[in-house]
Structures are given as C-alpha cells and as structure tokens.
Write a structure and sequence with these properties.
The protein is mainly alpha-helical. It has six helices and no strands. The radius of gyration is 16 Å and the shape is flat.
Length: 117
C-alpha cells in the first residue's frame, strides 16, 4: 500500500492522535509504523537495491523534515521507489530543479533564501 503525502499529513487526525500532545519520540514511533507501508516496502526495495549516492543525498535532504536518520532513510527509499527505474536519480533531479528555480528567481529579482546543501 502506498501512502501519499496528503494522507501522511492527515494521519494523526484520522488515527485520532493529538499530535500536539505527543513528544518527538512518540511522533517518530507513530511515523515509523506509518512509513512501513510505503512504496519501498511494497516493492521490497532496500538500501542495497538503490544507488548509494542517491540514498545518501536523499537522507540528507529528508533530514529537513525529521531529526531521525532512520525515518529520513525510509522517506528517501520511498521516493527512490516511486519510479520503475530502481537506479532512479530522484534526488539528483530534485537538486537540479531547485537550482533552476533559484536561478530563475535571481534573474527576476526575487529574494532567494539560502537552502540547505
């Protein structure tokens, strides 16, 4: 079963969890249970199946959303499993897209925030 981002955002409410009353450790535990149903799990894709550089880049990018490396790895694996190409360059393309947007914003005089590298 693939879980889309919209469902993930609504998950605490649909599970009748009051996320404001949970500490970080509890929220991470709930998310890990939720993440077990992601695309990588469905497709039986592990870190051994994907490009190690893409996974490393993905983990670093996903750490923008969590402080837990294992959770970041699960998110990255799910993104890498989104295509039929097991050697997906998802994070390479993401960085290229973000760079293009930043360059276009600079050309148009839009203030650009420093992004995490």
């Amino acid at each position: 079963m693939y879980v889309d981002q919209g469902s993930m955002i609504l998950f605490p409410k649909s599970a009748q969890i009051e996320s404001k009353k949970m500490n970080d450790k509890e929220m991470i535990a709930v998310f890990k249970q939720f993440a077990d149903n992601g695309r990588a799990n469905d497709k039986k894709i592990t870190e051994k199946d994907v490009d190690p550089e893409e996974l490393k880049m993905g983990i670093e990018i996903e750490l923008e959303h969590t402080t837990d490396r294992e959770t970041a790895k699960r998110i990255a694996l799910d993104h890498l499993a989104e295509t039929n190409n097991i050697k997906s360059k998802y994070y390479t393309y993401l960085k290229e897209m973000e760079k293009r947007i930043e360059d276009e914003d600079k050309k148009e005089g839009v203030e650009v925030e420093d992004a995490k590298e």
